[in-house]
Design a protein that fits this description.
The complex is a heterodimer of chains A (about 300) and B (about 300). Chain A is mainly alpha-helical and about 300 residues long. Chain A is about 70% helix and about 0% strand. Chain A has 2 domains: about 50 residues, no CATH class; about 200 residues, MetI-like (MetI-like fold). The relative contact order of chain A is 0.13. Chain B contains 13 helices and no strands. The longest helix of chain B is centred in the first third of the chain and has 44 residues. The chains are: A mainly alpha (about 300), B mainly alpha (about 300). Chains A and B meet through helix 1, helix 4, helix 5, helix 6 and helix 7 of A and helix 1, helix 3, helix 4, helix 5 and helix 6 of B.
Protein backbone atom coordinates (compact mmCIF):
# COMPACT_ATOMS: atom_id res chain seq x y z
CA UNK A 1 0.00 0.00 0.00
CA UNK A 2 1.24 3.47 -0.78
CA UNK A 3 2.01 5.71 2.14
CA UNK A 4 -0.90 8.04 2.59
CA UNK A 5 -0.02 11.68 2.74
CA UNK A 6 -2.13 13.38 5.32
CA UNK A 7 -1.83 16.80 3.78
CA UNK A 8 -4.74 17.83 1.65
CA UNK A 9 -8.10 19.42 1.91
CA UNK A 10 -9.98 16.37 0.74
CA UNK A 11 -9.39 13.22 2.70
CA UNK A 12 -12.85 12.34 3.87
CA UNK A 13 -15.44 10.45 1.91
CA UNK A 14 -19.08 11.29 1.27
CA UNK A 15 -20.91 13.57 -1.14
CA UNK A 16 -19.25 16.73 0.21
CA UNK A 17 -15.84 15.30 -0.54
CA UNK A 18 -16.90 14.38 -4.06
CA UNK A 19 -18.10 17.91 -4.63
CA UNK A 20 -14.83 19.36 -3.38
CA UNK A 21 -12.91 16.93 -5.53
CA UNK A 22 -14.95 18.00 -8.56
CA UNK A 23 -14.31 21.65 -7.80
CA UNK A 24 -10.60 20.97 -7.40
CA UNK A 25 -10.34 19.31 -10.79
CA UNK A 26 -12.41 22.06 -12.42
CA UNK A 27 -10.02 24.73 -11.13
CA UNK A 28 -6.92 22.75 -12.09
CA UNK A 29 -8.41 22.11 -15.52
CA UNK A 30 -9.20 25.78 -16.08
CA UNK A 31 -5.63 26.68 -15.27
CA UNK A 32 -4.43 24.06 -17.75
CA UNK A 33 -6.46 25.93 -20.37
CA UNK A 34 -4.99 29.23 -19.19
CA UNK A 35 -1.43 28.01 -19.64
CA UNK A 36 -2.14 26.21 -22.91
CA UNK A 37 -4.21 28.77 -24.80
CA UNK A 38 -1.33 30.95 -26.05
CA UNK A 39 0.32 27.83 -27.46
CA UNK A 40 -2.97 26.85 -29.07
CA UNK A 41 -3.38 30.34 -30.51
CA UNK A 42 0.13 30.18 -31.98
CA UNK A 43 -0.45 26.75 -33.52
CA UNK A 44 -3.94 27.55 -34.83
CA UNK A 45 -2.89 30.89 -36.30
CA UNK A 46 0.17 29.39 -37.97
CA UNK A 47 -1.95 27.02 -40.09
CA UNK A 48 -4.68 29.53 -41.02
CA UNK A 49 -4.76 31.62 -44.16
CA UNK A 50 -4.49 35.40 -43.82
CA UNK A 51 -8.11 35.80 -44.93
CA UNK A 52 -9.30 33.39 -42.26
CA UNK A 53 -7.24 35.24 -39.64
CA UNK A 54 -8.86 38.57 -40.53
CA UNK A 55 -12.40 37.20 -40.60
CA UNK A 56 -12.44 34.77 -37.73
CA UNK A 57 -11.64 34.91 -34.06
CA UNK A 58 -8.13 34.23 -32.81
CA UNK A 59 -9.47 31.47 -30.58
CA UNK A 60 -11.25 29.60 -33.39
CA UNK A 61 -10.02 26.26 -34.67
CA UNK A 62 -8.57 26.52 -38.18
CA UNK A 63 -10.98 25.62 -40.99
CA UNK A 64 -8.43 24.62 -43.60
CA UNK A 65 -5.06 23.57 -42.39
CA UNK A 66 -2.18 24.79 -44.51
CA UNK A 67 1.51 24.59 -43.77
CA UNK A 68 2.43 27.32 -46.24
CA UNK A 69 3.19 29.75 -43.42
CA UNK A 70 5.54 27.21 -41.86
CA UNK A 71 7.38 26.72 -45.14
CA UNK A 72 7.66 30.46 -45.56
CA UNK A 73 8.82 31.03 -41.98
CA UNK A 74 11.50 28.38 -42.39
CA UNK A 75 12.74 29.22 -45.86
CA UNK A 76 11.47 32.52 -47.25
CA UNK A 77 10.37 35.01 -44.62
CA UNK A 78 12.22 38.31 -44.59
CA UNK A 79 14.54 39.00 -41.70
CA UNK A 80 15.45 42.61 -42.28
CA UNK A 81 16.35 42.76 -45.96
CA UNK A 82 17.36 39.13 -46.34
CA UNK A 83 14.53 36.77 -47.28
CA UNK A 84 15.82 33.26 -46.56
CA UNK A 85 13.55 32.55 -43.63
CA UNK A 86 14.64 31.45 -40.18
CA UNK A 87 16.67 28.50 -41.39
CA UNK A 88 20.16 30.10 -41.45
CA UNK A 89 19.57 31.68 -38.03
CA UNK A 90 18.28 28.41 -36.63
CA UNK A 91 21.55 26.85 -37.75
CA UNK A 92 23.45 29.72 -36.07
CA UNK A 93 21.70 28.89 -32.83
CA UNK A 94 22.61 25.22 -33.19
CA UNK A 95 26.25 26.09 -33.96
CA UNK A 96 26.26 28.38 -30.92
CA UNK A 97 24.35 26.28 -28.41
CA UNK A 98 25.99 22.87 -28.92
CA UNK A 99 29.64 23.87 -28.33
CA UNK A 100 28.73 26.36 -25.60
CA UNK A 101 26.70 23.75 -23.72
CA UNK A 102 29.43 21.10 -24.03
CA UNK A 103 32.20 23.50 -23.00
CA UNK A 104 30.43 25.08 -20.06
CA UNK A 105 29.22 21.70 -18.78
CA UNK A 106 32.65 20.04 -19.03
CA UNK A 107 34.46 22.92 -17.36
CA UNK A 108 31.76 23.22 -14.69
CA UNK A 109 32.06 19.50 -13.89
CA UNK A 110 35.85 19.72 -13.55
CA UNK A 111 35.60 22.86 -11.48
CA UNK A 112 32.90 21.51 -9.17
CA UNK A 113 34.89 18.29 -8.71
CA UNK A 114 38.14 20.10 -7.88
CA UNK A 115 36.37 22.45 -5.47
CA UNK A 116 34.60 19.72 -3.50
CA UNK A 117 36.70 16.58 -3.65
CA UNK A 118 40.18 18.14 -3.62
CA UNK A 119 39.58 20.87 -1.16
CA UNK A 120 42.42 23.30 -0.91
CA UNK A 121 42.79 26.48 1.13
CA UNK A 122 40.56 29.19 -0.32
CA UNK A 123 38.28 26.78 -2.22
CA UNK A 124 35.19 28.18 -0.51
CA UNK A 125 36.11 31.76 -1.28
CA UNK A 126 36.89 30.92 -4.89
CA UNK A 127 33.52 29.22 -5.19
CA UNK A 128 31.65 32.14 -3.61
CA UNK A 129 33.40 34.63 -5.88
CA UNK A 130 32.67 32.57 -8.99
CA UNK A 131 29.06 31.96 -7.94
CA UNK A 132 28.38 35.68 -7.87
CA UNK A 133 28.91 35.70 -11.64
CA UNK A 134 25.69 33.73 -12.08
CA UNK A 135 23.60 36.51 -10.60
CA UNK A 136 24.95 39.74 -12.02
CA UNK A 137 22.72 41.64 -14.41
CA UNK A 138 24.49 41.10 -17.71
CA UNK A 139 24.01 44.76 -18.61
CA UNK A 140 27.03 45.46 -16.44
CA UNK A 141 29.33 43.40 -18.71
CA UNK A 142 27.81 44.25 -22.09
CA UNK A 143 30.05 47.20 -22.93
CA UNK A 144 33.44 45.70 -21.97
CA UNK A 145 32.42 42.39 -23.56
CA UNK A 146 31.62 44.12 -26.84
CA UNK A 147 35.07 45.73 -26.79
CA UNK A 148 36.82 42.50 -25.81
CA UNK A 149 35.11 40.58 -28.60
CA UNK A 150 36.27 43.31 -30.96
CA UNK A 151 39.86 43.01 -29.72
CA UNK A 152 39.74 39.23 -30.15
CA UNK A 153 38.35 39.59 -33.67
CA UNK A 154 35.20 37.75 -32.60
CA UNK A 155 32.79 40.69 -32.79
CA UNK A 156 29.55 39.73 -34.53
CA UNK A 157 30.44 36.04 -34.88
CA UNK A 158 29.01 32.79 -33.63
CA UNK A 159 32.34 31.79 -31.96
CA UNK A 160 32.13 35.08 -30.07
CA UNK A 161 28.74 34.06 -28.71
CA UNK A 162 30.11 30.63 -27.78
CA UNK A 163 32.79 32.34 -25.71
CA UNK A 164 30.26 34.62 -24.00
CA UNK A 165 27.87 31.81 -23.14
CA UNK A 166 30.66 29.55 -21.93
CA UNK A 167 32.14 32.20 -19.66
CA UNK A 168 28.85 33.29 -18.12
CA UNK A 169 27.47 29.76 -17.99
CA UNK A 170 30.47 28.57 -16.02
CA UNK A 171 29.37 30.03 -12.68
CA UNK A 172 26.13 28.22 -13.03
CA UNK A 173 27.42 24.84 -14.16
CA UNK A 174 29.99 24.96 -11.35
CA UNK A 175 27.16 25.55 -8.86
CA UNK A 176 25.23 22.58 -10.24
CA UNK A 177 28.13 20.15 -10.08
CA UNK A 178 29.36 21.40 -6.74
CA UNK A 179 25.93 20.81 -5.22
CA UNK A 180 25.88 17.34 -6.74
CA UNK A 181 29.42 16.36 -5.73
CA UNK A 182 28.88 17.51 -2.15
CA UNK A 183 26.42 14.63 -1.86
CA UNK A 184 29.02 12.11 -3.14
CA UNK A 185 30.73 10.51 -0.13
CA UNK A 186 34.36 11.61 0.27
CA UNK A 187 35.24 8.03 1.24
CA UNK A 188 34.97 6.85 -2.36
CA UNK A 189 37.48 9.43 -3.49
CA UNK A 190 39.77 8.83 -0.48
CA UNK A 191 39.83 5.08 -1.15
CA UNK A 192 40.75 5.69 -4.79
CA UNK A 193 43.51 8.08 -3.70
CA UNK A 194 44.94 5.42 -1.40
CA UNK A 195 44.91 3.01 -4.36
CA UNK A 196 47.08 5.51 -6.18
CA UNK A 197 44.49 6.97 -8.56
CA UNK A 198 45.14 10.57 -9.55
CA UNK A 199 43.00 13.66 -10.06
CA UNK A 200 41.87 12.86 -13.59
CA UNK A 201 41.79 9.10 -13.03
CA UNK A 202 39.27 9.49 -10.23
CA UNK A 203 37.32 12.06 -12.22
CA UNK A 204 36.91 9.99 -15.37
CA UNK A 205 36.66 6.51 -13.86
CA UNK A 206 34.72 7.11 -10.65
CA UNK A 207 33.10 10.53 -10.35
CA UNK A 208 31.91 11.14 -13.90
CA UNK A 209 30.09 7.80 -14.40
CA UNK A 210 28.06 8.41 -11.24
CA UNK A 211 27.17 12.00 -12.08
CA UNK A 212 24.95 11.25 -15.06
CA UNK A 213 21.89 12.90 -13.46
CA UNK A 214 23.88 16.07 -12.77
CA UNK A 215 25.18 16.07 -16.34
CA UNK A 216 21.68 15.68 -17.78
CA UNK A 217 20.27 18.45 -15.57
CA UNK A 218 23.13 20.80 -16.45
CA UNK A 219 23.04 20.10 -20.18
CA UNK A 220 19.29 20.64 -20.36
CA UNK A 221 19.45 23.80 -18.30
CA UNK A 222 22.35 25.28 -20.24
CA UNK A 223 20.77 24.39 -23.57
CA UNK A 224 17.52 26.09 -22.61
CA UNK A 225 19.30 29.19 -21.33
CA UNK A 226 21.63 29.53 -24.31
CA UNK A 227 19.06 28.73 -26.98
CA UNK A 228 16.60 31.20 -25.47
CA UNK A 229 19.14 33.97 -24.95
CA UNK A 230 18.27 37.23 -26.60
CA UNK A 231 20.37 39.89 -24.84
CA UNK A 232 23.82 38.61 -25.87
CA UNK A 233 22.57 37.71 -29.33
CA UNK A 234 21.16 41.14 -30.03
CA UNK A 235 24.09 42.98 -28.47
CA UNK A 236 26.99 41.05 -30.02
CA UNK A 237 25.81 39.91 -33.45
CA UNK A 238 24.63 41.65 -36.57
CA UNK A 239 22.61 40.35 -39.49
CA UNK A 240 23.92 37.04 -40.74
CA UNK A 241 25.26 35.81 -37.42
CA UNK A 242 22.05 36.47 -35.42
CA UNK A 243 20.77 33.57 -33.34
CA UNK A 244 17.22 32.47 -34.02
CA UNK A 245 15.65 34.47 -31.16
CA UNK A 246 16.98 37.72 -32.60
CA UNK A 247 15.92 36.73 -36.11
CA UNK A 248 12.43 35.90 -34.85
CA UNK A 249 12.15 39.31 -33.27
CA UNK A 250 13.22 40.86 -36.57
CA UNK A 251 10.67 38.83 -38.54
CA UNK A 252 7.89 39.90 -36.21
CA UNK A 253 8.93 43.54 -36.32
CA UNK A 254 9.60 43.79 -40.04
CA UNK A 255 7.26 46.55 -41.06
CA UNK A 256 7.53 46.31 -44.84
CA UNK A 257 4.69 44.79 -46.83
CA UNK A 258 1.61 42.97 -45.59
CA UNK A 259 1.82 41.74 -42.02
CA UNK A 260 1.71 37.97 -42.19
CA UNK A 261 0.60 36.87 -38.76
CA UNK A 262 0.52 33.20 -39.67
CA UNK A 263 4.18 33.38 -40.70
CA UNK A 264 5.04 35.20 -37.44
CA UNK A 265 3.39 32.47 -35.39
CA UNK A 266 5.01 29.66 -37.36
CA UNK A 267 8.38 31.37 -36.91
CA UNK A 268 7.78 31.69 -33.15
CA UNK A 269 6.97 27.98 -32.86
CA UNK A 270 10.02 27.03 -34.93
CA UNK A 271 12.25 29.13 -32.68
CA UNK A 272 10.70 27.62 -29.54
CA UNK A 273 10.50 24.03 -30.74
CA UNK A 274 13.95 22.76 -29.66
CA UNK A 275 13.59 23.83 -26.03
CA UNK A 276 9.95 22.74 -25.97
CA UNK A 277 10.95 19.27 -27.21
CA UNK A 278 13.70 19.04 -24.62
CA UNK A 279 11.20 20.02 -21.96
CA UNK A 280 8.60 17.46 -23.05
CA UNK A 281 11.17 14.66 -23.29
CA UNK A 282 13.14 15.48 -20.13
CA UNK A 283 10.74 17.66 -18.16
CA UNK A 284 11.60 16.08 -14.81
CA UNK A 285 15.25 17.03 -15.19
CA UNK A 286 14.29 20.51 -16.29
CA UNK A 287 12.25 20.99 -13.12
CA UNK A 288 15.18 19.82 -11.06
CA UNK A 289 17.40 22.34 -12.81
CA UNK A 290 14.92 25.12 -12.14
CA UNK A 291 14.90 24.47 -8.43
CA UNK A 292 18.60 23.66 -8.07
CA UNK A 293 19.85 26.74 -9.77
CA UNK A 294 16.91 28.77 -8.88
CA UNK A 295 18.32 32.24 -9.15
CA UNK A 296 19.43 32.41 -12.75
CA UNK A 297 17.20 34.58 -14.89
CA UNK B 1 68.42 6.73 -9.94
CA UNK B 2 68.49 10.12 -8.35
CA UNK B 3 66.97 11.50 -11.55
CA UNK B 4 63.89 9.30 -11.44
CA UNK B 5 63.52 10.14 -7.75
CA UNK B 6 63.51 13.79 -8.64
CA UNK B 7 60.98 13.20 -11.40
CA UNK B 8 58.70 11.27 -9.05
CA UNK B 9 58.82 14.09 -6.55
CA UNK B 10 58.14 16.55 -9.33
CA UNK B 11 55.19 14.59 -10.65
CA UNK B 12 53.85 14.08 -7.13
CA UNK B 13 54.06 17.80 -6.56
CA UNK B 14 52.33 18.37 -9.89
CA UNK B 15 49.66 15.83 -9.01
CA UNK B 16 49.11 17.50 -5.65
CA UNK B 17 48.67 20.87 -7.28
CA UNK B 18 46.47 19.60 -10.13
CA UNK B 19 43.19 20.69 -8.53
CA UNK B 20 44.56 24.18 -8.19
CA UNK B 21 45.95 24.06 -11.74
CA UNK B 22 42.49 23.11 -13.03
CA UNK B 23 40.61 25.69 -11.00
CA UNK B 24 43.01 28.60 -11.49
CA UNK B 25 42.40 29.33 -15.17
CA UNK B 26 38.65 29.06 -14.67
CA UNK B 27 38.85 31.35 -11.69
CA UNK B 28 41.00 33.73 -13.71
CA UNK B 29 38.35 33.74 -16.47
CA UNK B 30 35.75 34.65 -13.90
CA UNK B 31 37.96 37.33 -12.37
CA UNK B 32 38.49 38.89 -15.79
CA UNK B 33 35.04 38.53 -17.35
CA UNK B 34 33.02 39.24 -14.21
CA UNK B 35 35.03 41.36 -11.82
CA UNK B 36 37.31 43.00 -14.39
CA UNK B 37 34.36 43.89 -16.56
CA UNK B 38 32.36 45.22 -13.63
CA UNK B 39 35.36 47.38 -12.67
CA UNK B 40 35.60 48.67 -16.25
CA UNK B 41 31.90 49.55 -16.34
CA UNK B 42 32.09 51.26 -12.95
CA UNK B 43 35.14 53.25 -14.11
CA UNK B 44 33.41 54.31 -17.33
CA UNK B 45 30.38 55.42 -15.34
CA UNK B 46 32.64 58.00 -13.66
CA UNK B 47 33.90 59.42 -16.98
CA UNK B 48 32.52 61.58 -19.75
CA UNK B 49 32.50 58.67 -22.25
CA UNK B 50 30.21 59.18 -25.21
CA UNK B 51 30.52 57.18 -28.42
CA UNK B 52 34.04 56.11 -27.47
CA UNK B 53 35.25 55.34 -23.96
CA UNK B 54 37.48 57.92 -22.33
CA UNK B 55 39.30 57.09 -19.16
CA UNK B 56 39.64 60.49 -17.44
CA UNK B 57 37.55 60.50 -14.32
CA UNK B 58 34.95 63.23 -14.09
CA UNK B 59 33.19 62.43 -10.85
CA UNK B 60 29.51 61.80 -10.56
CA UNK B 61 28.51 63.72 -13.69
CA UNK B 62 26.91 60.71 -15.40
CA UNK B 63 24.94 59.82 -12.31
CA UNK B 64 23.69 63.38 -12.00
CA UNK B 65 22.60 63.25 -15.63
CA UNK B 66 20.98 59.86 -15.11
CA UNK B 67 18.99 61.03 -12.12
CA UNK B 68 17.77 64.11 -13.99
CA UNK B 69 16.70 62.14 -17.08
CA UNK B 70 12.89 61.73 -17.20
CA UNK B 71 13.24 58.52 -19.17
CA UNK B 72 15.19 56.94 -16.29
CA UNK B 73 12.34 57.74 -13.93
CA UNK B 74 9.91 56.15 -16.36
CA UNK B 75 12.10 53.05 -16.38
CA UNK B 76 12.25 52.96 -12.57
CA UNK B 77 8.52 53.52 -12.20
CA UNK B 78 7.85 50.74 -14.69
CA UNK B 79 10.23 48.43 -12.90
CA UNK B 80 8.43 49.16 -9.65
CA UNK B 81 4.95 48.59 -11.11
CA UNK B 82 6.04 45.53 -13.04
CA UNK B 83 8.00 43.85 -10.27
CA UNK B 84 5.47 44.39 -7.49
CA UNK B 85 2.57 43.10 -9.60
CA UNK B 86 4.63 40.37 -11.24
CA UNK B 87 6.00 39.08 -7.93
CA UNK B 88 2.71 39.46 -6.05
CA UNK B 89 0.46 37.80 -8.63
CA UNK B 90 2.95 35.06 -9.56
CA UNK B 91 3.38 34.15 -5.90
CA UNK B 92 -0.35 34.18 -5.15
CA UNK B 93 -1.08 32.00 -8.18
CA UNK B 94 1.93 29.82 -7.44
CA UNK B 95 1.04 29.02 -3.85
CA UNK B 96 -2.65 28.41 -4.60
CA UNK B 97 -1.85 26.10 -7.51
CA UNK B 98 0.81 24.30 -5.47
CA UNK B 99 -1.64 23.64 -2.62
CA UNK B 100 -4.33 22.47 -5.05
CA UNK B 101 -1.84 20.20 -6.81
CA UNK B 102 -0.71 18.75 -3.47
CA UNK B 103 -4.02 16.93 -2.91
CA UNK B 104 -2.84 13.50 -4.02
CA UNK B 105 -3.90 13.89 -7.62
CA UNK B 106 -3.13 11.06 -9.97
CA UNK B 107 -2.50 13.20 -13.05
CA UNK B 108 -0.28 15.60 -11.12
CA UNK B 109 2.71 14.99 -13.40
CA UNK B 110 0.77 15.97 -16.51
CA UNK B 111 -0.75 19.08 -14.92
CA UNK B 112 2.63 20.18 -13.55
CA UNK B 113 4.14 19.79 -17.01
CA UNK B 114 1.42 21.99 -18.50
CA UNK B 115 1.77 24.67 -15.82
CA UNK B 116 5.52 24.86 -16.20
CA UNK B 117 6.15 24.58 -19.94
CA UNK B 118 6.20 28.38 -20.55
CA UNK B 119 9.47 28.52 -18.59
CA UNK B 120 11.15 26.39 -21.25
CA UNK B 121 10.30 28.93 -23.93
CA UNK B 122 12.07 32.14 -24.80
CA UNK B 123 10.31 35.35 -23.82
CA UNK B 124 10.69 36.32 -27.46
CA UNK B 125 8.58 33.33 -28.50
CA UNK B 126 5.87 33.81 -25.90
CA UNK B 127 6.02 37.58 -26.34
CA UNK B 128 5.16 37.09 -30.01
CA UNK B 129 2.11 35.07 -29.02
CA UNK B 130 0.97 37.60 -26.43
CA UNK B 131 1.50 40.48 -28.81
CA UNK B 132 -0.94 38.75 -31.10
CA UNK B 133 -3.49 37.96 -28.37
CA UNK B 134 -3.36 41.53 -27.03
CA UNK B 135 -3.39 43.14 -30.48
CA UNK B 136 -6.50 45.39 -30.40
CA UNK B 137 -7.41 44.82 -34.05
CA UNK B 138 -7.15 41.03 -34.04
CA UNK B 139 -6.98 39.64 -30.52
CA UNK B 140 -9.16 39.84 -27.43
CA UNK B 141 -10.69 43.21 -28.32
CA UNK B 142 -11.91 41.95 -31.68
CA UNK B 143 -13.14 38.70 -30.13
CA UNK B 144 -15.33 40.45 -27.56
CA UNK B 145 -16.58 42.95 -30.15
CA UNK B 146 -17.58 40.10 -32.45
CA UNK B 147 -19.50 38.59 -29.54
CA UNK B 148 -21.79 41.61 -29.68
CA UNK B 149 -20.10 44.28 -27.56
CA UNK B 150 -19.05 46.79 -30.24
CA UNK B 151 -17.88 49.33 -27.65
CA UNK B 152 -15.53 46.97 -25.84
CA UNK B 153 -12.02 48.38 -25.76
CA UNK B 154 -8.88 46.56 -24.73
CA UNK B 155 -6.02 48.51 -26.24
CA UNK B 156 -3.53 48.31 -23.37
CA UNK B 157 -0.76 47.14 -25.69
CA UNK B 158 -0.75 50.45 -27.57
CA UNK B 159 -1.90 52.69 -24.72
CA UNK B 160 1.09 54.40 -23.05
CA UNK B 161 -0.65 54.44 -19.66
CA UNK B 162 -1.51 50.75 -19.63
CA UNK B 163 1.11 49.07 -21.83
CA UNK B 164 3.22 48.15 -18.80
CA UNK B 165 0.35 46.00 -17.52
CA UNK B 166 0.41 43.87 -20.65
CA UNK B 167 4.00 43.02 -19.74
CA UNK B 168 2.73 41.99 -16.31
CA UNK B 169 0.08 39.77 -17.95
CA UNK B 170 2.61 37.98 -20.14
CA UNK B 171 5.25 37.81 -17.39
CA UNK B 172 2.86 36.28 -14.87
CA UNK B 173 1.67 33.76 -17.44
CA UNK B 174 5.26 32.75 -18.13
CA UNK B 175 6.60 32.54 -14.58
CA UNK B 176 3.72 31.64 -12.26
CA UNK B 177 4.15 27.94 -13.05
CA UNK B 178 7.75 28.27 -11.94
CA UNK B 179 6.64 29.76 -8.61
CA UNK B 180 4.17 26.88 -8.34
CA UNK B 181 6.96 24.32 -8.82
CA UNK B 182 9.12 25.94 -6.15
CA UNK B 183 6.22 26.11 -3.69
CA UNK B 184 5.26 22.52 -4.46
CA UNK B 185 8.79 21.39 -3.63
CA UNK B 186 8.48 23.37 -0.38
CA UNK B 187 5.14 21.77 0.49
CA UNK B 188 6.61 18.33 -0.09
CA UNK B 189 9.41 19.06 2.34
CA UNK B 190 7.02 19.82 5.22
CA UNK B 191 7.36 17.05 7.78
CA UNK B 192 4.57 14.51 7.42
CA UNK B 193 4.58 13.84 11.18
CA UNK B 194 3.65 17.44 11.88
CA UNK B 195 0.72 17.14 9.48
CA UNK B 196 -0.41 13.88 11.07
CA UNK B 197 -0.29 15.47 14.50
CA UNK B 198 -2.41 18.36 13.23
CA UNK B 199 -4.92 15.95 11.73
CA UNK B 200 -5.16 14.01 15.00
CA UNK B 201 -5.73 17.28 16.85
CA UNK B 202 -8.66 17.80 14.54
CA UNK B 203 -7.28 20.88 12.82
CA UNK B 204 -9.15 21.53 9.58
CA UNK B 205 -7.52 22.00 6.22
CA UNK B 206 -7.60 25.82 6.39
CA UNK B 207 -6.10 25.92 9.87
CA UNK B 208 -3.48 23.32 9.00
CA UNK B 209 -2.31 25.39 6.06
CA UNK B 210 -2.48 28.86 7.61
CA UNK B 211 -1.12 27.93 11.04
CA UNK B 212 1.34 25.14 10.33
CA UNK B 213 2.27 24.54 6.70
CA UNK B 214 2.66 28.07 5.35
CA UNK B 215 4.56 29.48 8.35
CA UNK B 216 7.03 26.61 8.15
CA UNK B 217 7.67 27.50 4.50
CA UNK B 218 8.98 30.97 5.23
CA UNK B 219 12.41 30.26 3.66
CA UNK B 220 10.70 29.04 0.48
CA UNK B 221 8.72 32.28 0.26
CA UNK B 222 11.93 34.24 0.64
CA UNK B 223 13.61 32.24 -2.13
CA UNK B 224 10.66 32.70 -4.47
CA UNK B 225 10.56 36.47 -3.87
CA UNK B 226 14.27 36.72 -4.59
CA UNK B 227 14.10 34.56 -7.70
CA UNK B 228 11.17 36.52 -9.11
CA UNK B 229 12.72 39.88 -8.20
CA UNK B 230 15.88 38.81 -9.97
CA UNK B 231 13.86 37.85 -13.06
CA UNK B 232 11.98 41.16 -12.92
CA UNK B 233 15.08 43.36 -12.69
CA UNK B 234 16.72 41.55 -15.58
CA UNK B 235 13.60 41.49 -17.78
CA UNK B 236 14.64 42.63 -21.20
CA UNK B 237 13.46 40.11 -23.80
CA UNK B 238 9.82 40.28 -22.74
CA UNK B 239 9.69 44.06 -23.05
CA UNK B 240 11.47 44.00 -26.41
CA UNK B 241 9.18 41.29 -27.80
CA UNK B 242 5.92 42.71 -26.51
CA UNK B 243 6.19 46.47 -26.79
CA UNK B 244 9.76 47.24 -27.83
CA UNK B 245 9.78 49.65 -24.88
CA UNK B 246 7.00 51.65 -26.49
CA UNK B 247 4.73 53.34 -27.19
CA UNK B 248 7.50 55.95 -27.18
CA UNK B 249 9.45 54.84 -24.15
CA UNK B 250 6.36 54.22 -22.02
CA UNK B 251 7.37 50.65 -21.15
CA UNK B 252 11.09 51.22 -20.78
CA UNK B 253 12.75 49.35 -17.93
CA UNK B 254 16.30 49.71 -16.64
CA UNK B 255 17.48 46.80 -18.82
CA UNK B 256 16.05 48.32 -22.01
CA UNK B 257 17.15 51.80 -20.96
CA UNK B 258 20.72 50.59 -20.60
CA UNK B 259 20.58 48.81 -23.95
CA UNK B 260 19.17 51.87 -25.71
CA UNK B 261 21.86 54.17 -24.33
CA UNK B 262 24.67 51.70 -24.99
CA UNK B 263 23.85 50.43 -28.45
CA UNK B 264 21.39 52.85 -30.02
CA UNK B 265 22.36 56.25 -28.64
CA UNK B 266 26.03 55.44 -27.99
CA UNK B 267 26.21 57.23 -24.66
CA UNK B 268 28.56 54.84 -22.93
CA UNK B 269 28.84 56.86 -19.72
CA UNK B 270 25.10 57.00 -19.13
CA UNK B 271 24.70 53.35 -20.14
CA UNK B 272 27.44 52.37 -17.68
CA UNK B 273 25.89 54.44 -14.89
CA UNK B 274 22.50 52.79 -15.40
CA UNK B 275 24.13 49.33 -15.51
CA UNK B 276 25.88 50.10 -12.22
CA UNK B 277 22.55 51.09 -10.68
CA UNK B 278 21.11 47.74 -11.80
CA UNK B 279 24.08 45.89 -10.35
CA UNK B 280 23.73 47.73 -7.05
CA UNK B 281 20.04 46.79 -6.84
CA UNK B 282 20.75 43.13 -7.57
CA UNK B 283 23.60 43.12 -5.05
CA UNK B 284 21.36 44.54 -2.35
CA UNK B 285 19.03 41.58 -2.89
CA UNK B 286 21.37 38.75 -3.80
CA UNK B 287 24.46 39.22 -1.65
CA UNK B 288 22.73 38.87 1.75
CA UNK B 289 20.74 35.95 0.36
CA UNK B 290 23.80 34.15 -1.01
CA UNK B 291 25.71 34.85 2.17
CA UNK B 292 23.04 33.27 4.34
CA UNK B 293 22.59 30.36 1.91
CA UNK B 294 26.30 29.56 1.81
CA UNK B 295 26.62 29.87 5.57
CA UNK B 296 23.56 27.71 6.03
CA UNK B 297 25.00 25.09 3.71
CA UNK B 298 28.28 24.95 5.63
CA UNK B 299 26.65 24.45 9.00
Amino acid sequence: MRARRTSGIVHRSGPGAWLLRGLLFTILGLFCLYYLFPLFVMLATSVKSLAEIREGSFLAFPRDISFEAWAKAWGAACVGVRCDGLQPYFMNSVMMAVPAVLLSTTLGALNGYALTKWRFPGADIIFALMLFGAFIPFQVVLLPMARTLGELGLAGTVPGLILVHTVYGLAFTTLFFRNFFIGVPDGIVQAAKVDGAGFFGIFFRIVLPMSLPAIVVTVIWQFTQIWNDFLFGVAFTVGDSNPVTVALNNVVNTSTGVKEYNVDMAAAIIAGLPTLLVYVVAGAYFVRGLSAGAVKG
Amino acid sequence: MAGTGFLTTLSRGFERRLPLIVVSPLFALSLFFVYGFIAWTVWISFTKSGVMPVYDLSGLAQYERLWTTPRWYVALKNLFIFSSLFIGISMALGIVLAILLDQRIRVEGVIRTIYLYPMALSFIVTGTAWKWILNPGLGIEKLVRDWGFPDFTFDWLVNPDYAIYTIVIAGVWQSSGYAMALFLAGLRSVDDEVLKAAAIDGAGAWRTYTRIVLPSMRPVFLSVVIILAHLAIKSFDLVVALTGGGPGYATDMPATFMYAFAFQRSELGMAAASAVMMLATICAIIVPYLYSELRGARR
